[in-house]
Amino acid sequence: MNVGYRALEATDDVQHVTVPVRALYPTHAPAYAQAFGPYELEVAHRAEPAGERLPVVSASHGGGATPWPVCLLAAHLA
Predict the structure, then answer these.
(1) What secondary structure does DSSP assign to 44-68, as a single string?
(2) pLDDT tens digits, 33-72
(3) Which residues on neighbouring strands pair with residue 33, listed in sequence order?
(4) Band of pLDDT at residue 32, cut at 50, 70 and 90
(5) Which of 25, 36, 40, 68 gets the most CB atoms within 10 Å of its CB?
(6) Are 4 and 48 a contacting pair, CB within 8 Å?
(7) What is the C-alpha separation between 71 and 51, in angstroms, rounded?
(8) Region for 16 from its dihedrals, namely left if φ exceeds 0, alpha if ψ lies in -120 to 50, beta otherwise
(9) Strand pairing partners for 23?
(10) Distances (CA, A) of 28 to 4, 23, 32, 76
(11) 26/49 Cα distance (integer angstroms)
(12) What's the CA gap between 57 and 22, in Å, rounded?
């Protein structure tokens, strides 16, 4: 099993801003090394998920910080 990756955007209609969202999930597609800030993960970019109705875990880095330290945890959970 590999880790799939998709870059998404969510719109906050109250504050009128777009928020970047990164989804990591299980996939059977081949994965390749990709840099995420100073971190490197083996991911399958825009691959099909391995299944339907998969559980969801949401991880946030907090306000104003870099999101990349939690990418290793997110990949492990995927």
Answers:
(1) EETPPPSSSS---------TTS-SG
(2) 999 888 899 999 999 999 999 988 888 776 667 777 788 8
(3) 42
(4) very high
(5) 25
(6) yes
(7) 22
(8) left
(9) 6
(10) 8, 16, 12, 15
(11) 6
(12) 12
The two structure tokens encoding residue 33? 């090394």
Count, residues in the chain = 78
Token couple for 29: 């597609």
Nearest to 31 by CA among 70, 1, 72: 1
DSSP track, 6-17: EEEEEEETTTTE
Query: Whole-model pTM?
Result: 0.83
Identify any residues that bridge with 43 across adjacent strands, giving them in sequence order. Answer: 32
Torsion, Cα 65 67 73 74, to 10 degrees, reads 140
> Under a CB-based contact definition with an 8 Å cutoff, are residues 2 and 29 in contact?
yes
